[in-house]
Amino acid sequence: MHQSDKEEMREETPLKHLAIIMDGNGRWAQERGLKRTKGHEKGADVIRDITTYCANHPTIETVTFYAFSTENWKRPKLEVEFLMKLLDTYLKKELPVYQKHHVRFLAIGDMTRFSKPLQKRIKETEARTKENHSLTQVLALNYGGRAEIVGVVNDIVKEGKSVLTEKDISRALQTPYSDIDLLIRTSGEERISNFLLWQISYAEFYFTPTLWPDFNTQELDSIITHYTQRTRRFGGLQ
Ligand code: IPE
Ligand code: IPE
Ligand code: MG
């Protein structure tokens, strides 16, 4: 669905920006006696299904997935290497899917620590999908909410400003439509783990025990129904 059609429907259902902390890949694999990497592989397929659902949803304009945090480098080297390779394979396989469903791909985070070929793949995928308008899929890669805020503050200060407003920071953040409407975390953990700290200020939270590789569009659909029944007051009284 084109973003301008989504614009018209937004008044009734204000779910514009969905963010997801995909957690539980390792546990999913371990429960089955498999290597953790199998959970990551299955998890990548789920990203595809959820993105396609969002592209066809009447109001969602952006879906942001937490794929690799600034803290995930602490994991064993082999797991980190596997995740980097998986990301490259995912993006390569994904290009026709992005084009078919008119999805624009964007990456946020500090990618300078990634290999040159992976950085190139990310840049190329962004460039080749930049005219797509049914959905923006954002992958947070080597992303940390605190690092992101420090980065934009330093950029603004470098431009010569010494007193900042909330607008200055919101505008400078890499995320499009910076305010998150709904944040989902899978796997039963109920924490933020340094994700989108600025953007979740008035987000609705939903924690599900489902492990990410078992998450699916039916569950997302029922979470969204639940979300639309909530009253978001933003500090007011309505
Ligand atoms: C989420 O699953 C994927 C990444 C953080 C890359 P985990 O790998 O954290 O899975 P668990 O939490 O160990 O089960
Ligand atoms: C958060 O999951 C990061 C991603 C989903 C990419 P983690 O599994 O790394 O978070 P903690 O360590 O449980 O907080
Ligand atoms: Mg985890």
Detail the poorly predicted runs: none
Ligand roster: 3-methylbut-3-enyl trihydrogen diphosphate, magnesium ion
In this structure, how is the largest beta sheet organized? 6 strands, parallel
Distance between the termini: 31 Å
Structural class: alpha/beta
CATH architecture: 3-Layer(aba) Sandwich
**So what's the overall shape?**
globular
Describe the structure concisely for a colleague.
The chain is α/β, with parallel strands linked by helices. It has helices at 3-9, 25-31, 36-55, 77-100, 116-129, 145-158, 166-172, 217-228, and strands at residues 17-21, 62-69, 103-108, 135-143, 182-185, 204-207.
Explained architecture:
By secondary structure, the chain is an alpha/beta fold. It has a single domain, classed as Undecaprenyl pyrophosphate synthetase (3-Layer(aba) Sandwich), CATH 3.40.1180.10. It has helices at residues 3-9, 25-31, 36-55, 77-100, 116-129, 145-158, 166-172, 217-228, and strands spanning 17-21, 62-69, 103-108, 135-143, 182-185, 204-207. Strands 3-4-2-1-5-6 form a six-stranded parallel sheet, with helices on both faces. Helix 5 (116-129) links the parallel strand 3 (103-108) and strand 4. The longest helix is centred in the middle third of the chain and has 24 residues, at 77-100. The mean pLDDT is 93.
How are the SSEs placed, and which strands pair?
Elements: H1 3-9, E1 17-21, H2 25-31, H3 36-55, E2 62-69, H4 77-100, E3 103-108, H5 116-129, E4 135-143, H6 145-158, H7 166-172, E5 182-185, E6 204-207, H8 217-228
Helix pairs in contact: 2-3, 3-4, 4-5
